[in-house]
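Let us work through a complete example step by step.
Step 1: write down the sequence.
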Amino acid sequence: MLSREYIREHADEVREALKARGAKIDLDRLLELEAERRRTIARVETLKNQRNMASQEIAALKKSKQDASAQIGAMQHVGDEIRQLDEALLRVEDELHQMEMLVPNVPHPSVPAGPDESSNRVERVWGEKPEFSFAPRPHWEIGEALGILDFDRASKITGARFSLLFGAGARLNRALIDFFLEQNASRGYTEVVPPFMVNADSLRGTGQLPKFEEDLFKLTDRDYYLIPTAEVPVTNIHRDETLDSSSLPRFYTAYSPCFRSEAGSYGKDTRGLIRQHQFEKVEMVKFTMPDQSWAEHERLTADAEALLQTLGLHYRVVTLSTGDMGFGSAKTYDLEVWLPGQNAYREIASSTNFTDFQARRANIRYRMPDKKSGFVHTLTARASRWDGRWWPSWRTSSRKTDRSACRRRCSTISAV
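Step 2: predict the structure and record it as C-alpha cells.
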C-alpha cells in the first residue's frame, strides 16, 4: 500500500505509474477524499478546542454563580456538529481505504514500460540451449509414457488441473524440495514450516485481498483461505510487529503446497502441469531495511539463479515490464528455463522487491537505536515450482552435465 502522503505529494508520478500498469483507479476521487478527510479532521479539532475553552468558561461562570445557559446551549450545537463530522469522517475513511487498497505499487525507474510481456527485457542468459537430432517430447507425453504422471485419474479424484505423481516422479518431487531447502539453509535462510491456511488479514497484508479474491480457495465454514504461496504466511510472521533494526535483514525459506483457482487463465497454455490448481513451491522471503533492499534483491535473484545453475539448466533472467509485473511489485525478475519439449522459455522462478508496499498493509516496522522508526522492505523469490518446468527440462536433454548435476542432487533421477 502506498502512503497517503506519498500519493498526495507525488500525484503526477502515481498517475503515470497507474497509466504504465494499465490500472484503472480514479486517482482524482482518491485525492478528493484525502483532502476531505484532512478538512474534516481540521474542523473537528477546531470545534473540540472551542468546546474545551467553553467548558472552562462555563465552569468559571458556575463557580461565580452566573448564568451559563447560553454557553451550554451553544456547546450542545458544537457537540452535535462534532458527532455529525465524526460520522462523515468514518464514511470518508472507509471509501478512501477501499480505494487505496486497490492502488498498485509504483514501479522502480529501471522497470521497462510496456503493456504486457512483449515489453519485458532480457538481462542475461546462462548456459547453452540444448540441441538434439530428434524432436524432444513435452513433459506430459514423457511422464505418462513412463507411468510417473497421471492426469486422468487425478481428474477422476478431484477435477481438471490436478495431477498424480507416481514412483520416481513422486520421489523426484520430494528430492527437489529437500535440495532447495538445504541449499537455501546453507546461504543463511532460516527454514520455516508455516500454516497452509491463513486468515483474511494475512492475505490483505501481502496484497492478495481484496483485489484477487477470485483466485483464492476459501473454506466455506471458516474465514480461512488455502494459501496461494508460502509468501503469504511467511511475510505475515512479523505482521503488527516492530523489529529492531540491528536484527535486519532476516531471511526465511519455506516449502508449501499452493492452491490457486487460476481464474481468468482459461484458454491460455494450460496443457500438462502448467497452471495447476495445486502445486508445490519453495519460497525465500527477506525483511530488510529500506536502504538495503535493492542490494538484497540482486542477492536474492542470485540465490535463485544458483539453484538452476547447480542443476545445469539453461535459463535467462528477464525484468518484467510495468504491464506484466505483479500488483505489489516495485521490480520483478523472472527466471525462465528453456524447455526443449515445448521449444520455449518458461518462467520457473521469480524474484520481487515489494519495497514497503506489503509492510504498510501488514504493519511491519523497524526501530532504530535513536528510536526513529519506519516500514521494512519485503522481498520474495520462489526457489521451486512444481508445474512441469523442472524434470522435463532435464529429461529431454542429452547433455551429460545436466544429467550428472541432477543425479548428484536428486537421488531418483536415474530411475526416471
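Step 3: interpret the result. Residues 117 and 324 are 5 Å apart (CA to CA).
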